[in-house]
Amino acid sequence: MGLSQWSSSPPSSSFFMHAFILLWWCGLLVTSVVGGNNETDRLALLEFKAKIIDDPLQVLSSWNDSIHFCQWRGVTCGRRHQRVIVLDLRTSKLIGSISPHVGNLSSLKNLILSNNSFHNEIPSEIDRLRRLQFLLMSNNTYIGKIPRNLSHCTNLKIIDFGRNLLDGEIPTTLGTLSKLRLINFDFNDLTGSIPPSFGNLSSLKVFGTAYNNLGGSVPTSFGQLMKLTFFGVGVNRLSRRIPPSIFNLSSLKVFVVGLNQIQGHLPSDIGITLPNIEKISISSNQFTGPIPISISKASNIKLLELDENKLRGRVPSLEKLYRVSMFVIAFNELGNGGANDLIFLCSLTNSTYLTYLVINMNNFGGELPKCIVNFSTTLTFLYLDNNKISGNIPLGIGNLINLEDLRMWNNKLSGNIPSEIGKLRKLQIGIFDQDCCKVAIKVLNLLHHGASKSFIAKCEALRNIRHRNLVKVLIACSGVDYQGHDFKALVYEFMTNDNLDGWLHLVSRRNEVPKKKNDLNLLQRLNIAINIAHALEYLHHHCHTPIVHCDLKPSNVLLNDEMIGHVGDFGLARFLQEATQECFTNQSSSIGLRGTIGYATPEYGMGNEVSIYGDVYSYGILLLEMFIGKRPTDNIFKDNLNLHDFVTRAMPEQVSNIVDPIIFWKSEDMETRTNDTQIQNRIGCPKILECLILIFGIGVSCSMESPRERMNISDVVAQLHLMREKLLRTRIRRERLQLTGKLFMTQYLLL
């Protein structure tokens, strides 16, 4: 056949059809492999659902073939190609892990899984989501490392992994994500240092890594972030100085570096170079020098926390801080004991939102200015104690009608306590000196329902009981104020170390700004737990009439200067018949109000009468809280998961994963902490691990749902004592070995 003959013969239509179909299938195959399609998305979502082990709100009940997957709850598809572009399941109370198949949702722009109970690791397959912009996964229980290959998601604008259990270092590769606006890794267990590469993120506005274990220093490169508004790195192990360039970021609104080991001083022009600043917290560091005079020019400041440093000199005038609500400069070396030390207080009368004024533990002298009676009526906390303040308490102090906590002890005040204090009907505390003995005065708010009965209950409960682990009441006061209203107060023995709650939890009630570092080690916590158990054993079994406390919780356990626990606040206490251990009268109609949510025993909510088993339940919850560092009302405890079940599921193999790591950071009965690997080794120490398992076992046994299954408090005391003896024997043996080693080395060196 010649060429001309072939060219003149038209090809068959079936040939073109077969060729078209072949090319179409090839294209479809390539699309499926490389970019995915609708079916890929549907299968990926079903794989995601398969990893969910509990869905109490039935959020994923619509995820089935009855409707198109683009109509499934939490799923949003693009209009053109019907591909998934948003997966938003925030606050859905889901429990489970994330399927690696999520990486097949190749068109996904927003992945939002915040406020659930997702666990296990974050799958590395997320790096395949090249169009991803928002990655919000905060407030879950993810473990493991931050995926290093997230840098492949070059369109990311927001990364939020806050409030999880992530560890390891922050990947430096994230510094290549030029579109990032927000990075939040707070409340994890991250180590290493802050990557200097983050200084290249020119679009970054928010950077938060608070409550981790980050060391090193703040990178100088952060001074290049001209759009930065929020810088929060508090509660880490950062040291050295803050780069001066950071104080020149005029966009900065929040600067929080509290509870680190940072040195240096505040720049003299800070109030000028940071014109938009609203919150400054440098608490618990090693800052030196004076408070800059220019601070008064920062008129937008709402919170100024400079406490627990080494600041010296006079406090400048603050007359332009109109918006400040929290001014905290305690635990410094401010003032010189002179007559004019407290003049700055008068400049704060312009601050109409002032709520916290805390200047205690300094060197302030002179008389207390009369201008303090003109403070805003919003003032709630006024701490002036442990200074050198002299003179009388101003008569107009009754103007501060919303004052709840007034502390003036350990000064040189003279004269009478003004009767106008009777006007302060909201006053509850923390304190004066009486006969060279510090005392705490608790004034009852009689406007609250049942306050008078509460006062009577306190007096009855404390009148005849004496025990080394119960707060001592020195006197009860009852009368009328100058307006003829009832006035009732209790004068307690003062406890210098406040309450247990403040030592167990880093977050204060002041907008979650760190207040004080937790440094209770394992042995200290065990001793306090024994103190509390002794107090309950006395109340339940050794009083003339058994007493049920009814409101046992960390804030009602006070600590003296030797860190010995004392149970206090008997406002809800009840007397029981000794034989039956049941309440004298049937008061089940109000029993649901007994105690505090999270600590109150379940049977009280069902109308059962008060019993000692209720206190044992509260003790069990408190004991678990002491050693895992989480309140029973923590966000991770939702729906079917509570503190008791959380510990039970971890027993015994996973105990090392739930124990509060802070126990091992500052421990007198262990070596000084040097790195995080050593912490894990300590947790894995057989004797310590055995001790923790036993402690958690007691806590679980005490907090059983059925009252009759709970341990007797006397058995608790006995077991905890045995546990402490074992722990101390281990410590003594180790110290002997260490001493032997030192002697050997000494002899070797002498040779």
TrEMBL record:
GO terms for cellular component: plasma membrane. The keyword Cell membrane applies. It is a single-pass membrane protein; Single-pass type I membrane protein. Keywords: ATP-binding, Cell membrane, Glycoprotein, Kinase, Leucine-rich repeat, Membrane, Nucleotide-binding, Phosphoprotein, Receptor, Repeat, Serine/threonine-protein kinase, Signal, Transferase, Transmembrane, Transmembrane helix. Residues 1-35 form the signal peptide. Its EC number is 2.7.11.1. Residues 389-688 form the Protein kinase domain. One of its GO terms (molecular function) is protein serine/threonine kinase activity. It catalyses: L-threonyl-[protein] + ATP = O-phospho-L-threonyl-[protein] + ADP + H(+); L-seryl-[protein] + ATP = O-phospho-L-seryl-[protein] + ADP + H(+). The keyword Phosphoprotein applies. InterPro entries: Kinase-like_dom_sf, Leu-rich_rpt, LRR-RLK, LRR_dom_sf, LRR_N_plant-typ, Prot_kinase_dom, Ser-Thr/Tyr_kinase_cat_dom, Ser/Thr_kinase_AS. It is found in: Cell membrane; Membrane. It is an enzyme of class 2 (transferase). Belongs to the protein kinase superfamily. Ser/Thr protein kinase family. Belongs to the RLP family. This is non-specific serine/threonine protein kinase. It comes from Quercus lobata.
